């Protein structure tokens, strides 16, 4: 990475790795050491890369990093960005270097990847249940005294499984757990305070376990009625705070602080505001937000949600999209139809199809912005169907490039093992890797 | 691979590679050479693997390989299975060892992966347009005299780009191209015979290019009215045959044979039947079907379509599903709801959600089949929502395993870098890799 910080032995090994011909987006004719990408003088607009290609705009990443640091400072919140979004060691490192408290992850194998690349504090925002998953996590804790892991529990069965495993493994330090509070009809998490308290008491009483905090995920409360959503979000967050007080009153927490964590990428402003006021507890409360999509944002689902968040905060320049997928016009089979060499294998399609942003003819002065009359109407595995406005059918030829924004970074990152870092003029300055 | 053939230097390098902790589905606590997976005595039902984990049942792969070889022999068709489905060198190798004529692919980078792992004949069933893509393909042809590549064209612009590039590269052998015939309102391909003939004549006249055949993709004609679909499929295939005859009458074909290729995974029976009757041409016609999903089949979209295909052929044991994704019950937050540790990152969701097939409690005698009352109703990135029948809510606990079939192999394979090979009793015998 050229303008974002990097560090650690394993990260430098990524820079040194020999990329083989066949890596998507690179069009290599011979193996290339990854750190040499930045000195190839590639420019996407000159057609130097392979197509399709996934791009991260460095200036937008930098803006979003700065924005989030300022946000957290303003609200007294800590950031444990959800690493499952990118699963990119270089982007984990950039976020940690920017002041993130830790990295949030969803599975044991994701934790292993993060630990391998130097992440030292993980919030595993998920229940850990499978014996094999517990085994790999306990091994990480045993082998790396500096490695910190916090995980979730929402059932007495789950607590028992963890307690038994920790005891059997002879782990010398307690495993800190957060009780997950859930929402009726939604995902995991205790459905009532009574259930949550029973789990909390079981953790506090179990040998080898430690009650470290309370966790919830309000991000599932997205409907078409945002006012009602926000009411439910606030009520849920308040229930989490009440649970903290109840556990504290019973003396269930152990360790130097209480972790209180919520916050997907839609409502982390409400989370930070609600949790900022929690004082008077036996030990300090750490308010931890977990947005994963803030870093790259997008041109769809999360762009809209973070625009709303920005408006709630009174405006200003909010988060900006950093991730684009560029492809070639392979065919112009009908006047208003272009077939692009980009499909479900290359861009997310679960929260909206990609948005056509720019067209570019190689050799032209620069790309041309596309209005809403241009839209992707369908994708197959390897192709997208771009519909053109009837009065602009002469503007796009076979071989032209089309730059698309995406909706939902998580399901775009997982389609690329290498994403290219570009300047605003689409000069390629480096690359990041993903491990899915 | 234990019971499927393997070969080639690069494939043995895959066997020798050191897999790192963090590879999804393996739960490694230390690096492991891939070929050692088969001697670990892992059994999925004993919880020895990580979860989620993607499994290929070796006996079902073997059945499907045999089934397809017999099908092709019966119809005088050649098989160039679409490699984009699996992008797995070991599965390419198994199919070639089973008599496949070549491997079909969709992009230049996929061709590079296949060539790297020993594939020697590729049908690139797509237009090749980007200069960087053309460059890497011509380099493969120049560096490997034994490597054969056939690609598509559907426009005069496209033909010109290829002709210019081949001339500039000084390639000593002509680049063989197939004209793509398309379908109104669908993907790439010439919309009329007149357009297709113009492209065919341009190829025949261009220096460095050679007209090798006619290609089409009838697999886009899937609606809810199958009788009408089949009529359109047959008419489309007949138009392809007519195009062969017209090109042949004009003496446009070069090379020792004429390639005539269609066939996704839904209607390859019609393709084989229609193309079997093409005789009387100046040189032999090779009828090439391209199904990619026959190898693993699925428990959804393609299972239904190949069942219909089997009925059209008069019954018998058809293709069987070979691909399953197993995960753990992470949470039982409500009586009829279980949250599984498997999501959009692990299983396809574009042509139907996964189907819950089996539940298993570790230590129990064996897995229990689930009826249609059990169904996955939703997936997030890392979680699935399994709905239970009201009279069986006591049958599933936190920590139990659930085995799911999937719908659409292409968008499941691309979520795994390693898939495990299992016997019918879920003993793990080996692994295959994917390169997306």
UniProtKB/TrEMBL annotation, chains A, B:
Keyword rRNA-binding in record: no
InterPro entries attached to this UniProt entry: Ala_racemase_N, D-amino_acid_metab_enzyme, D-ser_dehydrat-like_dom, D-ser_dehydrat-like_sf, PLP-binding_barrel
CDD domains, sorted: PLPDE_III_cryptic_DSD
D-serine dehydratase-like domain: residues covered: 322-423
Keywords per UniProt: Lyase
Superkingdom of this protein's organism: Bacteria
A Pfam family recorded for this sequence: Ala_racemase_N
GO molecular function, one term: lyase activity
Membership in a protein family: Belongs to the DSD1 family.
Record-given protein name: Serine deaminase
Upper classification of the organism: Bacteria, Pseudomonadati, Pseudomonadota, Betaproteobacteria, Burkholderiales
């Amino acid at each position: 990475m050229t303008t974002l910080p990097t560090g650690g032995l394993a990260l430098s090994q990524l820079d040194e790795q020999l990329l083989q011909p066949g890596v998507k987006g690179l069009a290599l004719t011979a193996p290339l050491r990854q750190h040499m990408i930045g000195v190839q003088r590639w420019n996407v607009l000159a057609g130097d890369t392979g197509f399709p290609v996934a791009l991260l705009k460095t200036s937008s990443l930098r803006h979003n990093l700065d924005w989030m640091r300022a946000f957290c400072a303003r609200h007294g919140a800590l950031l444990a960005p959800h690493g499952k979004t990118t699963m990119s060691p270089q982007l984990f490192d950039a976020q940690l270097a920017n002041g993130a408290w830790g990295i949030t992850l969803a599975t044991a194998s994701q934790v292993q990847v993060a630990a391998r690349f130097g992440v030292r504090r993980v919030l595993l925002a998920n229940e850990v249940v499978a014996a094999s998953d517990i085994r790999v996590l306990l091994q990480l804790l045993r082998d790396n005294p500096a490695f910190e892991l916090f995980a979730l529990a929402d059932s007495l069965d789950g607590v028992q499984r963890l307690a038994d495993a920790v005891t059997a493994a002879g782990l010398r330090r307690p495993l800190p757990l957060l009780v997950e509070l859930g929402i009726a009809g939604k995902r995991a998490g205790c459905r009532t305070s009574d259930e949550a308290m029973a789990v909390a008491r079981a953790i506090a009483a179990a040998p080898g376990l430690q009650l470290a905090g309370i966790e919830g995920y309000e991000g599932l409360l997205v409907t078409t009625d945002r006012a009602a959503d926000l009411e439910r979000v606030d009520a849920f967050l308040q229930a989490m705070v009440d649970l903290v007080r109840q556990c504290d009153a019973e003396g269930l927490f152990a360790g130097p602080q209480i972790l209180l964590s919520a916050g997907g990428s839609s409502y982390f402003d409400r989370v930070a505001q609600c949790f900022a006021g929690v004082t008077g507890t036996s030990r300090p409360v750490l308010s931890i937000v977990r947005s994963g999509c803030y870093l790259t944002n997008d041109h769809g689902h999360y762009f809209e949600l973070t625009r709303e968040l920005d408006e709630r905060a009174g405006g200003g320049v909010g988060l900006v999209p950093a991730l684009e997928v560029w492809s070639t016009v392979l065919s112009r089979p009908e006047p208003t139809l272009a077939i692009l060499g980009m499909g479900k294998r290359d861009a997310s399609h679960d929260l909206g199809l990609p948005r056509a942003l720019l067209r570019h003819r190689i050799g032209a002065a620069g790309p041309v912005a596309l209005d809403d009359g241009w839209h992707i109407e369908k994708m197959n595995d390897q192709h997208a169907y771009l519909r053109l406005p009837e009065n602009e059918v002469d503007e796009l030829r076979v071989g032209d490039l089309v730059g698309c924004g995406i909706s939902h970074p998580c399901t775009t990152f997982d389609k690329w093992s290498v994403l290219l870092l570009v300047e605003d003029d689409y000069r390629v300055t480096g690359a990041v890797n993903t491990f899915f």
